[in-house]
Amino acid sequence: KAGVTQTPRYLIKTRGQQVTLSCSPISGHRSVSWYQQTPGQGLQFLFEYFSETQRNKGNFPGRFSGRQFSNSRSEMNVSTLELGDSALYLCASSFVSGLNTGELFFGEGSRLTVL
Amino acid sequence: AQSVTQLGSHVSVSEGALVLLRCNYSSSVPPYLFWYVQYPNQGLQLLLKYTSAATLVKGINGFEAEFKKSETSFHLTKPSAHMSDAAEYFCAVSENNDMRFGAGTRLTVKP
Fold it and tell me: Which residues of B touch A92 (CB under 8 A)?
């Protein structure tokens, strides 16, 4: 069974630009959650989608948004990029909604560098 | 809101020695607790989870963790470290479907 696939793996943007990251969950998984990982802040929860609906949202500004498609693939978008948005963005999928199960399967991440 | 504190951002052990990675949590309700491992350039992988069943939880790769409510701790142990255990380990707590991760502990295993 294929794992969680994130694209692109690496990207470089400049301040003010916007970026879209993609995540394909494990087949059959309907929940996708996104995390930002930085050396200073660690792992921070961005949002979770289940069956195309946002179920939970972390404390990030509105520049961070996401969506989920009918095939469970998810995208996250960051607009008006800032230097501080440089991070590893991790996507995780799970069979059921809700993070209490902990049964999250992570992708390898998309490393974003903002110059 | 719940939170997790991992004591020690770096831990170094010799191969064959005991591994002990510390995690303390705060939660207003009985928590769900997890340990994840992250190898270089990879995503996180679930090692084990506590969901209010047995207080001693066994995970993959010989790791286990004990839930101690009185100490609000969920420390991760492995009796004998292997070189392949070198990685970053994250403790996490989930409450009301809101998962919070600790800052992580980088484990180094010396030959």
Answer: 43-44
| Tens-binned pLDDT, residue by residue, of chain B (111 aa) | 778 999 999 999 999 999 999 999 987 777 789 999 999 888 899 999 987 778 899 999 999 999 998 899 999 999 999 999 999 999 998 877 778 899 999 999 999
**Smallest CA–CA separation between B16 and chain A, in Å?**
29
List, as ranges, residues 41-70 from A with C-beta within 8 Å of B: 42-45, 48, 55-56
Euclidean distance between CA atoms B25 and A97, whole angstroms: 23
Q: Residue A13: which residues within 8 A CB-CB, separation 6 or more?
A: A19, A81, A112, A113, A114, A115
Q: CA-CA distances (angstroms) from residue A35 to A27, A112, B30, B85, B103? A: 20, 13, 24, 24, 13
For residue A40, the chain B residue with the least C-alpha distance is B103
Q: Which residues of A touch B46 (CB under 8 A)?
A: 102-105
What count of other Cβ atoms lies within 10 Å of the Cβ of residue A10?
Answer: 10
Residues in chain A: 115
Helix (H) or strand (E) run with residue B23 in it? strand B19-26
CB nearest B99 (choices: A97, A99, A107)? A99
Distance from C-alpha of B75 to C-alpha of A41, rounded to nearest angstrom: 22
Q: What tens digit of pLDDT does each residue of A49-63 get?
A: 999 999 888 889 999
